[in-house]
């Protein structure tokens, strides 16, 4: 089953034409897929198109409506004045389109996710006081509160110590294998990504130059 299907997707920014050019790809349920490529290749732009954050593209995107999303870390995120619990609970907001209040089931979902990720006991701590690795764990928990099926992450280990980065990858791998969560991740750390991903999508100058298994990618599989 494909959770994401993209056909002939093209997108241009006002100041940069052909950011994405005739992209075709699929993301299958239950896979760990990494999008790789050089800076400026269109990786983050592709993610934003899938999420509906970039408008005005041509082509077709069919994607699960409930996607958990972890964007690239920003200064605002790292200094957000809220508790862990508040940040994680905010992931359920998209489920409450008719209410500004959290429902009982939302609080229970947040509790289960925090327990699963090992942050429930510190849920009252301020998010801004956490280490980079702990903050990413909290933001992954937030993303999981928005979905049962798929989370999309944009450079989740950027700026982290290699040991902490490895722990994040191991966490994502567990979510895939034990919780059946589909993972779609943009990564600049190709070597580590290839240790965990099932599938690789490579972008270059806005075009898909490879889509296939990690095994084939390591072998230098046929380019598209």
Description of the structure:
The protein is an alpha/beta fold. 33% of the residues lie in helices and 28% in strands. The chain contains eight helices and nine strands. The strands form two sheets. The chain has a six-stranded mixed beta sheet, with helices on both faces. The longest helix has 18 residues, at 162-179.
How many domain regions? Answer: 2
In spatial order, strands of the major sheet run: 5-6-7-3-8-9
Average pLDDT score: 90
* Structural class determined from secondary elements: alpha/beta
What proportion strand?
Answer: 25-35%
Number of H/I helices: 8
Following the backbone from N to C, one meets helices and strands in this order, namely EEEHEEHHHHEHEHEEH
Radius of gyration, rounded?
Answer: 17 Å
Oligomer: single chain
Task: Outline the biggest β-sheet.
Answer: 6 strands, mixed
In helices, the fraction of residues equals 25-40%
CATH superfamily of the largest domain: P-loop containing nucleotide triphosphate hydrolases
Number of strands: 9
Cα separation of the termini: 22 Å
CATH architecture of the largest domain: 3-Layer(aba) Sandwich
Shape: globular
Low-confidence stretches: none
Per CATH, the class of the largest domain reads Alpha Beta
CATH topology of the largest domain, which one?
Rossmann fold
List keywords for this structure.
single chain; 224 residues; alpha/beta; Rossmann fold; 2 domains; 6-stranded mixed β-sheet; 3-stranded antiparallel β-sheet
Q: How is this structure best summarized?
A:
This protein has 224 residues and is of the alpha/beta class.
